[in-house]
Amino acid sequence: MSSSIENYSVSLVSGGKLQTPFIYNHNDIEYTSKYDLLNNSFNFYTDSDRDYSIIPFNNMIRLYCINTRQCMKTIKFNNNKVLEQIFLNSSFVENTIIYSNVINIDQINFIELVSKNGKIVYVPLDRRIDYDTDIKALDIEFINNDNKNLLITQVLNDNIVLLEDDSKSNFYIGTRINEEDSVKIVIKKTIAKEQLITYSWSNNKSNLLIIKKSENDIKRQKESKKSKKNNSQATYNTVDCSIFTTNQIDIEEPILNFTDIEINTSDSISKNSKIITQSTISNDLSKLAIGFASGVIQLISLSQADSTTTTQFLKWHCDSVLSLSFNSNSTQLFSGGWEKVFVYWDLSQGSIKKNFIPRLNGVIVSIVEPDFKENYISVLLQHVDNLTNMDLEFLLLNKSDFKSKLSVNGPLINFESDYLIKNLKGENIRPRSAIKQKTSTNANGYNNDITIRSFTNSISSPEILYFPHCNGINTYDLNKNESLKYIQLSKSVEIGKIRNEHEDIIEPEILKIENFQIEHNNIKYEFLITLESLKSQQNSVFANTQKKANNEISYTLKFWKKSINTESNDWILQTKIISPHGVENNQLLGDIEIVDIHISSTNSNSHLNKHIFTTDKYGGVKKWAVLEIPNNVIDENLCWKFGLINYKSSNNNLITENNFVIESLDKSLVLQSLGDRLYFLDAINMNSILKFLQLDSNIQTMQLNKVNGNIVIMTKIGLLTYDLIKNEITNGFDMYDEFKKSLISQDSTTSNTNKSLVLKNGLELKNMKRLISINPLTGDITLVVNNILSRKSMIYFFDKDLNNIILKKEHDSWISCMKWNNFNNFNFIDINSRIGIISDNISNSNNNGVVIKQEDDYDLLKPLNTANTVTEFVSDTNKKNKKELEMIIDTDTVLDSRMRLNNHTFLPLFNSVNSNTMVDTVFDTVLKMLK
């Protein structure tokens, strides 16, 4: 055992996602989520003539200097035992930071953090924090809560907090009482959620606006229920508005009441014109604004003297208004919504004038003018094109020219399905559009896939990670812990304000990316290959009359070269291949689905040895390479030409989701996995099958170990290593019981997540390629197994020959992808967007996280040594009375058995199987051996 192997450590070093308090609602008629105003969780303060912003993540707090745009301090929760216990060792939702503020106690600055589950933590701002630093933390005591479990949703100021119970049946207003060693919240007012429409507060947090259903609307809805009329309960004709002052301790009674305010935004009968999505009130109580799903804003002028109202309608948006906010002196109204357009309305003149900034990066879910400086506007964006994850971006704009002063977001990642966010993470999927319908992301039916679309590392700078995201690539710096740039490789059509464009536009998606290096004239060039998919538009001339839009997908393969004339991460398109594997039979639209991309594993950077393989769902394989290099490679207007050099034709009678290929070290063979067989193809004539290896179950993935030239194969029940020289399987591990932990049934996705999840029989793991990797320096093999029930993952380390499990380490959440980073360690990312390092050198400079505890119990896995002449069985050793052995041939239909045959015992018998051997002969041999 090498010394480097003994030093493997697992650390969380980077990543994370922006965290903001929000109320999530999965109701079908909910067109928006209520985000709190940004100056509640994203706070600001000034020190020594510099402005700072506090940005909360799900795994850390970061302080940015607005003047220099630099991160000045990072406080990672896993670097301190108190922060780790409060913010990391609880559920996804309850540990949310819902308030942050800088306070001074005894001449020391602290960041005050309030969590959703009622914890207050005081983090020293100017002192170094290590793991054993004692950080003050208090539990909040709730008074008058009627024994209900309360969760804090917003902290408005030192006096007022807003709460809800865990059943979300009531909305509460409470007052905060600070004592020396405790904090109490006294419930002052309770509002039934069935009466509440929306609520918001003024920019200075002095005024709280509550909008409720009017008595007339409540009666109308009761009558429609009795008559069983299909009227949406989200639409309103009149509403009641109550305004509370948060500066007074007694907040039970509102200071202003406006009843039966008529909602009449449009002559249209569309329900969108009556669905309220957002509201706000001005600091001076002179105006309130209500936004609707139709895009109309109702501006209401309030008369405090006689409680009368005057209404104006502001029309520009064509979809849901998701954010509204007045400026500090109530002369401007800011609005934003689904069109990704920031609009500001000038209310100071007699006639209202509007201006706008077109097309920000994401849908605008919150806008506020920070109260510490009037020359800034903070905006919260959400990338709604990603249906599988909640990607937030914090943007701070200069109010004078609306240029960005600060932009912060975590790694932007796409999961293979939306199973996680729908069933387990408790996050809002995205605010709904009023006119653009959500499409399904699970065309292949892999609802329980918790992996992301595989990332890759820059070859020249391994600390740079590339994440495929929607129609672009998010470039992330692991060391700086910052997103560097969003590279839009697929140019999306610019969406204007025209309703039809906004409704019908379909953008391409990048499904897979891989990168490689080619050396020419002693200069190294980095290339990127992307696979794009584009769904056909349903209103197309060629649209299928049966509306099988999910089948009508076109694929495009693109080769990009990294620019050498600039330090920016610009990529220049070299070759574009449309429908690389052809089209489906008898279809006007719809290409053959591409399953995988594989870059040949070679240490040579010569373009003659660099091959790119693509495989399709019908067993077809195509091999691509450089066909032509421009005479003047310095001229970036001249492109490298990539093209097809070899192929194996598809078989339309075969359909598989796991079609992988690899090249042997000497490149004389191409190995292809189809079902439970490993085929050996001639590298020159790939349609010529030299032989095949019959395995015990379907192959999930395979990789070439460049250290010893062996093939590492993962089947449905175990891990094997195949020696190409000896032409035999040399070692294996039966991991059937471990793999079962990471599988769930399709039925459990719609059940209550608190119930025990049912294991799935199929054991088809589309995602296993992303959960196994090989160290090319030592040949060590790492494998991730996610435990669905415990919500943890285990990382197994095997030696290069698969003789032993060297060690295993546990991670506190599921791992979604792991890859060797072309330097000296592995990178992985978990479901919470946190990036980690698996390093074989504990003193590695990048490894500044906390080493995860090592586990030494290897009894779960039984290694197979084919040198043994005696057949061994995996059985219950505690049973003294030997029972009759039940031989299990079909492992897919038997989930549990005390006495299981180790299937790898029979693998050497299959080495000589060829196409002329009858299957019965194999099992006759097995039975003879058992006798």
UniProtKB/TrEMBL annotation:
Localization (cell): Nucleus, Nucleolus
Repeat (WD) residue spans along the chain: 314-355
Keyword DNA-binding: no
InterPro entries tied to this protein: WD40/YVTN_repeat-like_dom_sf, WD40_repeat_dom_sf, WD40_rpt, WDR75
GO annotation terms (biological process): positive regulation of rRNA processing; positive regulation of transcription by RNA polymerase I; rRNA processing
Keyword Methyltransferase: no
Top-rank lineage group of the source organism: Eukaryota
Protein name as it appears in the record: NET1-associated nuclear protein 1
Keyword list, A-Z: Nucleus, Repeat, Ribosome biogenesis, rRNA processing, Transcription, WD repeat
GO molecular function: RNA binding
Species this protein is from: Hanseniaspora uvarum (Yeast)
GO cellular component labels: small-subunit processome
